[in-house]
Structure formats: structure tokens, C-alpha cells
Amino acid sequence: MDAKDAVTKLISKISSFTVTPNYEVLFFSSEIYKVVDIIDFFDGKMKHKDSVKQELDKFEVGDRNTAGTDLNLVFKTFLEQMAMIKTRVKEEAFKEHRHVIILFTDGGYNMGGSPKPNVERIKQMIYMNHTSEPGTQSREEFLDIYIFAIGAEIYDEDLQPLTAGIGLQHYFRLKDIKNLQKTFDEIIGDI
Questions:
Q1: Is residue 162 scored above 70 in pLDDT?
Q2: pTM
Q3: pLDDT at 79 over 90
Q4: How far is CA 36 from CA 57, 80, 123, 186, in A?
Q5: Region class of 43: left (phi > 0), else alpha (psi between -120 and 50), else beta
Q6: Phi, psi for 12 (deg, rounded to 5)
Q7: For 100-157, how does the pLDDT look when each residue is reduced to its tens digit (9 = 90+)?
Q8: In this protein, which residues make up the domain named VWFA (predicted)?
Q9: DSSP 114
Q10: In sequence order, which ranges of the chain are alpha helices (DSSP H)?
Q11: Superfamily of domain 3-190 in the CATH hierarchy
Q12: CA–CA distance, 102 with 94 (Å, rounded to integer)
């Protein structure tokens, strides 16, 4: 199983739920390679999971730069997309959106600096400061960040703090991508 297969299988599993999510799919190294843009769902260019799978099928790594891992750039990209959605749908509608980020990485990051500040900005955008104000309802259920660290050399102390969510486990450490299907089955079974 490669990364494209893993994402395709995850989308198939998610499609068994009653919700119809919008997707942002990107691959990354020291650069971002956008496969599916979540804004396309808002513009009507993407309609369902089959369109996402078709875009994944078309994506080829080819001669792209695959050196380095810049998680900061990844989270900055997600933050920018979320800000664009918030602008389009307006504040009240944005409050009802649930956000799930599922990130597969090779065990750490070695470029672009720490992604923690951008993760915190994402949390603040979604939580709207409601988690710390007495008497207000927590908004933690509106954001889940899952990290799948895959490889022989994984920096748990760098990656675990980037997760978010309540209830389920949000950090997974795998030796190789072959174990991913079993992990997906376990996660989906817990929901």
C-alpha cells in the first residue's frame, strides 16, 4: 500500500458514514502538491468522493521534489484554507463546521520550523476562545487532528503535541504503511 492507496481507502471508509465531507488532499515534502482543493467543493467543481478518487488516481509524484518534510507549511496551508472557508460562509455558519485533519508523515519534520504555532492558530480559529472562558460550551469537538507517524525513526515528542480532539486516540505510530489498513479499521470501528 502506498500513500495514494491509503488515502483512497480512508475516503472509502469515511463514505460509509451518513455525513458527506468536503476534502482537502495534498501531498508534501518541502513543498505542497495539492490534489484536491476543498474550495472546489464550495464552488461546485467537486461533488463527491468519486471525484476525489479520480483526482487521486491522476496524481503522480513524477519528478517532484520529495526531499525534506515541512509540516509547518502543511499546517499553514490548512490554516489559510480554513480562513478562506470562514470568509466565504461567514462566522455563524463557520461555527457549525467540523474540521478533521488527517496527516501522514515519515516521523517528524526537518524543514520550515515548528508547526506548533500554526496548529495553535487553527485551534484558536475553531475553538473561538471558548475552551478557556467559564460558562461557555467547549468547541473542542469541532476539531480533530490525527497524526499517523510512519517509519523507523519517529520523533514522538515533536508530533504528539500537534494532535487535537477529544475521546479517541489521535496519534498513531506505525513501522510501515502496510499496517495502516488495520489501524483504519480499528479507528472506524471505534467511531
A1: yes
A2: 0.88
A3: yes
A4: 11, 15, 23, 26
A5: alpha
A6: -60, -45
A7: 999 999 888 999 999 999 999 999 999 986 645 565 678 899 999 999 998 889 999 9
A8: 1-187
A9: -
A10: 3-14, 39-42, 49-58, 71-94, 116-127, 156-159, 180-190
A11: von Willebrand factor, type A domain (3.40.50.410)
A12: 20
**Are 39 and 85 contacting, i.e. CB atoms less than 8 angstroms apart?**
yes
Q: 126 Cβ partners below 8 Å, 6+ apart?
A: 82, 99, 139, 142, 143
Q: What are phi and psi of 147, to 5 degrees?
A: -120, 125
Contact 147, 187 (CB under 8 A): no
Report the SS3 class of residue 173. strand
Sequence ranges of the domains in the chain: 3-190
Residues 6+ apart with CB under 8 A from 101: 78, 122, 143, 144, 145, 146
Closest CA to 48 of 85, 11, 83, 82: 11
**Amino acid at residue number 137:** Q
